[in-house]
């Protein structure tokens, strides 16, 4: 009988990081949550947790953009990110030098998507997606059990979309202004409406704009990749999902307009679009799923 490998998983998020020692969701040995501040302080706290553990491999699932091509000089690093102070931070070489264990690296959203496919609501599916909406907006897309990647990993959270009528907000993203992340990420909501997303009223025009913008990206994702299921996690949806998911499903069905085979896809919308099966553990377990590939 093959013994499960014990993985030190590190999920780096824009607000907090989670270090997890586990073989999977049914065998979590330890968990440490660390605020994401500057790189030196944050990484030192992560290493203090890992120094206490014995493990077979390390999985890192990080906010991005990140360098995933081992042939390039920026492999294992966070590249040009919107997170102040983190651009150019080398993660993997630092961990390799300290621990000497097999290490695997992926984006946080692709990690969560892999975890959903291995243990969550996307088990057995050939193609599925995971979206996170928090400090940023990220999209992880898996086909055939593998993350989709071209010259670099995708950045669908920075997709440009038609704006809602009379919406003149210039956008928060320092690179693209009013891309999707620039319109609906947590900092954008706070800037637009004067308070964090989890403090905004449960209903009202704020969420009308949110649904308009996010449904546009969902339409483009479906007609491009036709994932069998789309999970949406992150802080914004965790606090408002019961209100927003029904509205997003209705808007997406209307947007797809009964087109071709997607009419049959949309007929099962309650199963197609929803929360992660792993709940708030999708992200941390994503780092474990990544590490199992090391």
Written overview of the protein:
With 294 residues, the chain is an alpha/beta fold. Helices cover 37% and strands 20% of the residues. It contains 10 helices and 10 strands. The protein has helices at 39-50, 92-99, 108-119, 180-184, 186-193, 205-225, 235-256, 262-266, 269-272, 282-292, and strands at residues 7-12, 16-24, 27-35, 57-62, 103-107, 127-133, 137-143, 146-147, 229-233, 273-274. A 5-stranded mixed sheet has the order 3-2-1-4-5, with helices on both faces. Strands 8-7-6-9-10 form a 5-stranded mixed sheet. The longest helix has 22 residues, at 235-256. The model has no long low-confidence stretch (mean pLDDT 94).
Terminal CA distance reads 20 Å
- Strand order in the sheet with the most strands: 3-2-1-4-5
Give the helix proportion (percent range): 25-40%
- SSE run: EEEHEHEHEEEHHHEHHHEH
Poorly predicted segments: none
Share of residues in strands: 15-25%
Write the layout of secondary structure elements.
Blueprint: E1 7-12, E2 16-24, E3 27-35, H1 39-50, E4 57-62, H2 92-99, E5 103-107, H3 108-119, E6 127-133, E7 137-143, E8 146-147, H4 180-184, H5 186-193, H6 205-225, E9 229-233, H7 235-256, H8 262-266, H9 269-272, E10 273-274, H10 282-292
Parallel strand pairs: 1-4, 4-5, 6-9, 9-10
Antiparallel strand pairs: 1-2, 2-3, 6-7, 7-8
């Amino acid at each position: 009988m093959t013994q499960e490998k014990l993985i030190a998983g590190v999920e780096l998020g824009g607000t907090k990081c989670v270090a997890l020692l586990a073989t999977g969701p049914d065998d979590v040995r330890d968990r440490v949550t660390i605020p994401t501040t500057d790189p030196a302080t944050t990484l030192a706290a992560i290493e203090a947790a890992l120094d206490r553990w014995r493990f077979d491999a390390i999985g890192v699932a990080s906010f991005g953009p990140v360098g995933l091509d081992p042939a390039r000089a920026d492999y294992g690093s966070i590249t040009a990110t919107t997170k102040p102070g983190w651009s150019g931070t080398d993660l993997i070489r630092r961990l390799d030098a300290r621990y000497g264990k097999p290490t695997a690296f992926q984006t946080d959203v692709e990690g969560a998507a892999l975890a959903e496919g291995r243990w969550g609501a996307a088990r057995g599916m050939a193609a599925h997606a995971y979206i996170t909406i928090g400090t940023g907006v990220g999209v992880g897309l898996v086909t055939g059990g593998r993350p989709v990647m071209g010259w670099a990993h995708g950045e669908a959270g920075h997709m440009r979309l038609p704006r809602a009528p009379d919406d003149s907000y210039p956008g928060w993203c320092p690179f693209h202004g009013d891309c999707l992340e620039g319109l609906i990420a947590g900092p954008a909501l706070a800037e637009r409406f004067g308070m964090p997303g989890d403090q905004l009223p449960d209903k009202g025009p704020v969420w009308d704009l949110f649904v308009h913008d996010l449904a546009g990206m969902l339409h483009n994702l479906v007609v491009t990749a036709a994932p069998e299921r789309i999970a949406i996690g992150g802080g914004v949806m965790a606090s408002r999902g019961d209100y927003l998911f029904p509205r997003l499903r209705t808007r997406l069905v209307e947007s797809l307009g009964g087109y071709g085979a997607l009419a049959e896809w949309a007929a099962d919308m309650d199963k197609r679009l929803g929360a992660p099966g792993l709940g708030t553990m999708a992200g941390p377990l994503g780092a474990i799923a990544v590490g199992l590939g090391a």
